[in-house]
Amino acid sequence: xxxxxxxxxxxxxxxxxxxxxxxxxxxxxxxxxxxxxxxxxxxxxxxxxxxxxxxxxxxxxxxxxxxxxxxxxxxxxxxxxxxxxxxxxxxxxxxxxxxxxxxxxxxxxxxxxxxxxxxxxxxxxxxxxxxxxxxxxxxxxxxxxxxxxxxxxxxxxxxxxxxxxxxxxxxxxxxxxxxxxxxxxxxxxxxxxxxxxxxxxxxxxxxxxxxxxxxxxxxxxxxxxxxxxxxxxxxxxxxxxxxxxxxxxxxxxxxxxxxxxxxxxxxxxxxxxxxxxxxxxxxxxxxxxxxxxxxxxxxxxxxxxxxxxxxxxxxxxxxxxxxxxxxxxxxxxxxxxxxxxxxxxxxxxxxxxxxxxxxxxxxxxxxxxxxxxxxxxxxxxxxxxxxxxxxxxxxxxxxxxxxxxxxxxxxxxxxxxxxxxxxxxxxxxxxxxxxxxxxxxxxxxxxxxxxxxxxxxxxxxxxxxx
Length: 466
Ligand SMILES: [Zn+2]
Hints:
Elements: E1 4-9, H1 15-26, E2 28-33, E3 59-60, H2 74-90, E4 94-99, H3 102-109, H4 114-122, H5 131-134, H6 139-144, H7 152-162, H8 164-169, H9 175-188, H10 192-208, E5 219-225, H11 228-245, H12 247-263, H13 284-290, H14 297-336, E6 343-347, H15 354-370, H16 383-400, E7 407-410, E8 415-418, H17 420-428, H18 430-465
Parallel strand pairs: 1-4, 1-5, 2-3, 2-4, 5-6
Antiparallel strand pairs: 7-8
Helix pairs in contact: 1-15, 2-3, 7-9, 11-14, 13-14
Bound molecules: zinc ion.
């Protein structure tokens, strides 16, 4: 039946622990899907599950790459993970993929979509999330098309001419989106609305052609989730723990490696791979300060503490971006493939309730799937699960109504509203009615004054004639 279990979620929620629990219970093996944990010799910075917590379960693609090796691309990861999945199954065991780097996970879970192929192959690195905004500020575009530096009003006016559909979709204050739509038109010579419509159609066709669907029919995705405050507190504590465990000496090792290479005249691309890992790049100012000949203890300690604070901040931000990824990309892919029921949210907000909230429910779900029984309704799992899933469904419904939100501008009040509903509310509001009355009064007064003027003219005319 080719089953596959994927465990996803923000850092610090207990993904690795759940994977070990499930592997122990169902005779499984674990494939690490975290790009950083692939590096050898840096267990603390990359947050690898310690050997004593692995319960003897084989872990693949963990601690398998040296600092010297060029960072893996998503294609190599996918290929190796798929090979391992097959290999684990052939040995009669259950493959469990634990994703920290979620676009790695997604590449394994879903079949290729021809539409997205270019994107996943070229932009498949950490910066992928920023795909839309990243192209906005390319210096070359505004140099080539000065209108992209013009005022938002002028840009909107131009967009109304070349792509009225997009112009109608954006609020005049949404200057970034207006600029982006205009930029697409300038770059491609085609209205962005036309391109989007075409992409939508291609996606639909892709799903009909069986692309972009789950690679393995019997896939379960377990999302270990925790409330934000709880998670943030846990992450802060984890950073402190990492420092205690020897974060500084691992970072020192990396810094020394870079120094060593530099002295040999070799430059290392620090924009990829382990060099962008949280816990290393934030410490750069500290290591630079240490190398100063006049460095004093007190200052160094201050710098170190402020760097550690940045590690805390970056860790929390990373958690947020991982969740965003699940909510947007993974969710969209699942809903496009029509398999939302494959995603289960497990509430890890209270670690003392691990058995009840995480271990038990996930075991039941996996067991049902392996027994070929219907799996439970994802919303039935917990309050957190039903809240998150319902909110998201609502959001998807709002987004999926075929007409995208249109903007309405009230000429009387000089205000713009997004969406029919807001527009109706405005039309019925006091502010608008007052403005209408004021306008009517002005018109009345103007008419009266004009009338007087006319009369005056007529009288003067009369006199002139006489
Ligand atoms: Zn109005």
